[in-house]
Amino acid sequence: MPTDLITVVSGDGAEVSVSLHGGHICSWRTADGFERLFLSPLTKWDGHTAIRGGIPVIFPQFGNRGSLQKHGFARTEQWTLVASEVGENGDGLLHLTLSDSTESRLQFPYHFKLDLHITFSGASLDTALLVTNTGQQAFSFTCALHTYLAAEVEQVAINGIGGLRRENSVPDSPLNVDADGILRINSEVDSIFFEAGAPVTLVTNNAMVTMQQNGFADAVVWNPWIEVSKSIPDLQDDAYKHFVCIESAAIEKPLTVAAGAQWDGHQQLTACAPSIMTSSEK
Predict the structure, then answer these.
(1) What is the dihedral of CA 223, 256, 19, 146, to 10 degrees?
(2) CB 3.0–4.6 Å: which of 15, 17, 38, 187 could bond 150 by disulfide?
(3) Around Cβ 245, how many Cβ atoms within 10 Å?
């Protein structure tokens, strides 16, 4: 594990750990003690390679949709810790920042500041990404919070995306969406769902996590399945069985921030304890 890992425990016992490498949420334990994120045990903690799992910050480019390295550079840069504390109401609070540098401007020739605000307690985790244009020239970007949710994939049912326009990045691989609009995963899934305004819910046999987003227009669902999992060096061959990525994203319509202006996007994750799930959710 990294030496720069910062851990905060909220008043009710929820716990979040972040690495300054990438401004990366590596662990989220709800107050009931359950780890809600997947983190690969093969992650290379070398200070250069992106961390595999948790919640990577994707900026200023999603995927290969541009001339930059895949998913941009924010997830491999060293962020600065501004605050790590417990608020008066018991919430755990973390604030990290990343600003442009000589190196970043060689790839993305703009002045910017990113702020990552993390607020958590009980069974909820709120992650806010703020993008401020600190220069004199407008710029455009795409971004995401690439959230790896811990889940046994054969149990997974995903609600809230069935009727949305989508782009499937896996050739000749139709999504397994049933008549009720529920997505189940039995092969590789790599899909963008556009204009995802409603909550997206991941349900397994004994847990549920709901994602609500603001500012982010799109949602992404990804699971590498068998062959792709084997091809990724920092994933174990069977890792695909243990996570599903459900990501808040802005992809289809790049965001433009004028000089001196700011954009903000929020992702709220709420976990439901098995004991309070209704029969329709199980």
Answers:
(1) -10
(2) 38
(3) 20
Tally of CB atoms within 10 A around 137: 10
Which two tokens mark 247? Answer: 């990501």
- Angular region, 48: left φ>0, alpha ψ -120 to 50, beta rest: alpha
Read off the DSSP letter of residue 50: P
- Give the 3-state secondary structure of residue 67: coil
User: Whose CA is closest to 125, among 145, 142, 144, 143?
Assistant: 145
- CB proximity list for 275: less than 8 A, separation 6 or greater: none
The residue written with tokens 């799930």 in the block is 277
Residues 36-75 pLDDT 10s:
999 999 999 999 999 999 999 999 999 999 999 999 999 9
Q: Is 272 helix (H, G, I), strand (E, B) or coil?
A: strand
Please, what's the b/e burial string for 196-231 (b: 16 or more CB within 10 A of its CB; e: otherwise)?
Answer: beeebbbbbeebbbbbbbebbbbbbbbbbbeeebee
CB 92 within 8 A of CB 120: yes
Residues in the chain: 282
Q: Residue 72: name the closest of 147, 148, 146, 17 by CA.
A: 146
List pLDDT tens digits, range 131-156: 999 999 999 999 999 999 999 999 99
Cite the DSSP H helix spans in the chain.
102-107, 225-231
Q: Which residue type occupies 11?
A: G
Q: Look up residue 187 and give its DSSP letter.
A: S
Question: Is the link from the previous residue into 60 a cis peptide, with omega within 30 of 0?
Answer: yes
* 13 vs 29: CA distance, rounded Å: 9
In 3D space, the residue among 61, 77, 80 whose CA is nearest the CA of residue 69 turns out to be 61
**Full-model pTM:** 0.94
